[in-house]
């Protein structure tokens, strides 16, 4: 049986850093309140002429270099994003063109903060079946474009960035399993209220922005992530102690702590980047993965649990033997 394996990772962040101290001058908030409630200290903001595809390309180039592959080697591209450059062409096509890749399938998936896990699951299936031999999987966002910077409840949370992995075939499991879920009954708890077929004028005037009922999102997220952790372990006949590293969606330190507690995992075995990046939606998991691989914490042979939860609601996990 053929499996897929992560051969390289990369990330890309805009140069502009927005600190909590700067936010104190923009809205009625404090650095202490932001850090205590969310764990966030700073976030990166894309330049006016910097788009989701640009960040995706930056992360892709790093991942491809780490994997030792070039444009001619890539035969499958999938991008998880909530903030595409355009309605169409999709971000995958824009990334493909900017990287000088031709002819292969290239598309994007929209599952909010779970977008990278969804994209990884799709790419894994293509590699396992032999339909792809070298897959580029990206999570990329410019959430600053859809954030209301006058809303103190949400503007402190979000940032921009991109993370990427390259998957190649392997004889032994790299991506051991992926698990996806969604429940649209929660659609009104976390959403962006406009699109091409609904309230287009609001979107074009810039009046639409992220809406979130934070306390209710928190409760569902903690319960759902706990359940998917249990599901992932049971599906692979593993115990909590078999997980070397938890790499969670970097949304909120309290949600991350609750998930770690469910795993009986000390925070020293949890990869945290929320303090530096904020919530970067689909980009957060692959960026955190890249950080911990490049600083040497994650080593070959270790078992990783990736998980995310986002608007929809959507959720997902991936068990990785790195």
3D architecture notes:
By secondary structure, this protein is α/β, with parallel strands linked by helices. It is built from ten helices and 13 strands. It has helices at residues 20-24, 31-38, 52-67, 91-99, 115-128, 200-204, 214-235, 253-262, 274-277, 284-294; strands spanning 3-12, 16-19, 42-45, 76-80, 105-109, 135-142, 160-170, 175-182, 190-191, 211-212, 245-248, 303-310, 314-321. The strands form four sheets. A five-stranded mixed sheet has the order 1-7-6-4-5, with helices on both faces. Strands 8-13-12-11 form a four-stranded mixed sheet, sandwiched between helices. Strands 2-3 form a two-stranded antiparallel sheet. α7 packs parallel to α8.
Mean pLDDT: 94
Radius of gyration: 18 Å
Measured between the Cα atoms of the first and last residue, the distance is 18 Å
Q: Roughly what percent helix?
A: 25-40%
Classify the beta-strand content into a percent band.
15-25%
SSE ordering: EEHHEHEHEHEEEEHEHEHHHEE
Shape: globular
Largest sheet: 5 strands, mixed
Strands, total number? 13
Strand order of the largest sheet: 1-7-6-4-5
């Amino acid at each position: 049986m053929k499996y897929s394996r992560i051969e390289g990772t990369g990330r890309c962040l805009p140069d502009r850093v927005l600190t909590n101290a700067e936010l104190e001058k923009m809205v009625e908030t404090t650095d202490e309140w932001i850090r205590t409630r969310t764990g966030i200290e700073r976030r990166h903001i894309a330049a006016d002429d910097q788009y989701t595809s640009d960040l995706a390309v930056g992360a892709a180039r790093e991942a491809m270099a780490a994997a030792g592959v070039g444009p001619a080697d890539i035969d499958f591209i999938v991008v998880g994003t909530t903030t595409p450059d355009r309605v169409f062409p999709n971000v995958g096509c824009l990334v493909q063109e900017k990287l000088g890749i031709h002819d292969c399938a290239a598309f994007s998936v929209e599952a909010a903060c779970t977008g990278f896990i969804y994209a990884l699951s799709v790419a894994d299936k293509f590699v396992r079946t032999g339909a792809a031999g070298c897959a580029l999987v990206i999570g990329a966002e410019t959430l600053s474009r859809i954030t209301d910077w006058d809303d103190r409840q949400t503007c402190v949370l979000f940032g921009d960035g991109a993370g990427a992995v390259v998957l190649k075939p392997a004889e032994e499991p790299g991506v051991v399993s992926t698990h996806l879920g969604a429940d649209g009954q929660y659609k009104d708890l976390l959403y962006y209220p406009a699109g091409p077929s609904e309230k287009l004028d609001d979107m074009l005037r810039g009046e639409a922005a992220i809406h979130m009922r934070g306390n209710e999102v928190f409760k569902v997220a903690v319960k759902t992530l706990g359940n998917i952790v249990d599901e992932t372990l049971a599906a692979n006949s593993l115990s909590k102690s078999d997980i070397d590293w938890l790499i969670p969606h970097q949304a909120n330190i309290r949600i991350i702590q609750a998930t770690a507690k469910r795993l009986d995992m000390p925070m020293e075995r949890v990869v945290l980047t929320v303090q530096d990046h904020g919530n970067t939606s689909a980009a957060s998991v692959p960026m955190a993965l890249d950080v911990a691989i490049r600083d040497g914490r994650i080593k070959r042979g270790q078992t990783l649990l990736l998980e995310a939860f986002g608007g929809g609601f959507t959720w997902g996990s991936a068990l990785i033997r790195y």
